[in-house]
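note to self: the first set is below, dont mix up w the second
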Amino acid sequence: MICIIGAGVAGVMAAHFLSEEGAEVLLVDRSSVPASGGSGAAGAFISPKIGKGGPLQELTNEAFAFAQRFYRENFPKHFHGDGVLRIPKDSDDEKRFELYEAFNYRPYERWDAARAEAAGLRNVPGGFYFPEAGDADAPEICRVAAERLNFRQMEVERLEFAGNSWRIIGAGDLIEAEHVVLATGYESDLLDLRYMGIRGLWGSRGDYATSRQFPISLHKDFSLSSTRHGRIKLGATHVKSPQPCRICDGRPLATLEAKAAEITDTSDFRLVETFCGMRSTSRDHFPIVGPVIDVPRMLAETPAITRGAKAPLIHLEKLSVLNGLGGRGFVFAPLMARSLARYILHGEALDPRVHPDRLFWKWVRRMEN
């Protein structure tokens, strides 16, 4: 049996693909419902990454292509493919859009100011419209997926490897599993994962009642959804402080509301519900997918690695991680989860861009400084 710890979008998708491949799976979370943290607060906008090319943009767009097909096929009631318009953040960004266009995901359309105005926008020079993009109902997708799985509430306190299996231990509770997947997000303290550089990014989302019929979703330095059932979503992953609540002073959406009002009529928006939560990201902003290095053993047996010496990497047996999906968790999760499932069950090689080993040597070299 494979136990996945953490029922955010990473854990839910890992459980989905492992189960689809025929594995016996148990999904565990400290909450009685999935997506109780950052995943449930996500706007879950499913769109490509724009930019000047490079590995992260390429990987993001590969994940987007897979994700939008996956959600359409598996969660048709909870994926809204109305398209996403990517618009410049400011005048400098507008100039950079000319450079970005050569690297755009296809298909896309180049919109001018008149086209943007016809869609209900103002003070917008145009942008790139991606017709296959859209947004997902974040908690609903996790909930529906979890209903198809074996799910158990448990506050995991520690992990122990005994014999040939893992013991997942909580207060008065014990699970034994052949393999463990850590999908615990920014709170990754069950094992020594320091080398991964996992940290939190705070995100906020508001659901607003409105009479406006906004036909598309858009992304600037915030995201605004199309209108569905008289509601519209406004959100962003926008605070890096470890104390985000102190910074927002009880108004996490104030900045986003002001930005939205600059480009469209928000006069009848009435806030219905606010969602906030912490996403997790890695040191290099790529997802973290695969085996976990036994850091204490590496440091104990080969202490010279902190001074530049090389040594074979030692991994924890039968344990994997799926983390660091950042503000694009619902874009990355399906493809990363499928890759992890095939690695665990069939030994398929992992993409080196997301393999956790990539992060170890730079981290261990800094320990001596």
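second set (the one i keep forgetting abt)
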Amino acid sequence: MPPRLFDRALLAARRARARARPRPGADFLLTRVAEDLDDRLSTVLRRFERAVDLGAFAGAGAARLAASGKVGQVVTAGPDAGAVDLVTDEETLPFAPASLDLVVSLLSLHLVDDLPGTLVQIRRALVPDGLFLASLLGGQTLHELRDSLAAAEIELTGGLSPRVVPFLDVRDLGGLLQRAGFALPVTDTDRVTVRYASLFDLMADLRAMGATNPLVERSRRPTARALFLRAAEIYAERHADADGRIRATFEIVSASGWVPHESQQKPLRPGSAAVRLADALNTREIALGGDTEGET
């Protein structure tokens, strides 16, 4: 069993609280990845009859799927009982093998303890030639906040407690997709920099996203306001622009993978090329050992 990093019950409670107390403009990341989902679906020339929006925070993925005209039935599935069709944890999926044509997940899977296991379950639930599309937060996300909180805590207490999620490195995700059995895996990143008046405005947006500290190893003691005040000062000293506004980085990692199917494009066998590389480049071929082509 992988170590428990995230308090899953707390995550569900904070998502429910965020849904009940919306903050205007705080859904900017969700809006961005939903628009990206539109773009990625627009390049796929087929229809998906059965789809799942996994995680389903605010139903953004389901809404885009329904509007795309390429999806039949859409089911929302996630831990927020008041906002989904099917209540489930992303780590224990209830779907039968080969029962889905499409699974999408927006800003959810970076908060599971066993991402490789979840990807295997998604792969198993998809039919041959089924598609998986996801957006996760990557390793550079909130590095300024992590730096400022750590510096303030060390300065004031002499210790350090985990306060920011250890996000995924994009270099690992493609390998995880392959290990899970996906074909044609593709990953890319989109780095978004958002500016705030202060650390406290950033934290207000994070609360509205349901994205405050969900770590199992978080300190259970109430955090002294002095720590946040000092962290705000350090943040302004290290990560502010000339006008005094601070920067917050969000790295969005997008991933896609297909369940293998005989109709999919496959790499050519070694030696099966019909055209020589030298001819394509209009150059001379040099044989091993230094002999030029046609010379003895």
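remember for set 2: Residues 290-296 have pLDDT under 50 and may be disordered.
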